[in-house]
Design brief:
It contains 4 helices and 8 strands. It has a 4-stranded antiparallel sheet with strand order 1-2-3-4, with helices on one face. It is globular and about 50 Å long. The chain starts with 9 loop residues before the first strand and ends with a strand.
């Protein structure tokens, strides 16, 4: 059987959130976010936030969609990266972005964080 070209464009980006990989798959302008076993279509009504946990020891990705319960993914960074803000006087957004892949994930999806 001959292969048929569909003409669809697909882009995949992966981000490491603690021990879990998050994946954003974009096909013909439609974005699908997958974190572990959970997935959803991200559209204009989707609200995505990156939040710090207590004492900066944990991070959260919060996905809120109308008519659905909020999804919260909690994760921890390695100890060296968790303590980065306390070791560096000049720790800023770019340092945090290099340490935590959840920040560029949320920014890519048009969400907000405590940093911006």
């Amino acid at each position: 059987m001959d292969a048929v070209e569909s003409g669809h464009t697909e882009a995949v980006q992966r981000y490491r959130l603690g021990r879990v990989t998050a994946e954003v798959r974009e096909v013909d302008g439609r974005r699908v976010l997958r974190i572990g076993d959970w997935s959803t279509v991200v559209d204009d009504r989707t609200e995505i936030r990156h939040e710090n946990g207590r004492f900066l020891l944990s991070q959260r990705i919060v996905v809120v969609q109308p008519g659905r319960p909020a999804f919260v993914h909690r994760y921890r960074l390695p100890w060296g990266k968790q303590l980065g803000p306390f070791w560096q006087v000049t720790y800023d957004y770019w340092d945090a972005e290099a340490d935590d892949e959840g920040l560029p994930l949320v920014e890519f999806l048009g969400g907000t964080s405590n940093w911006r």
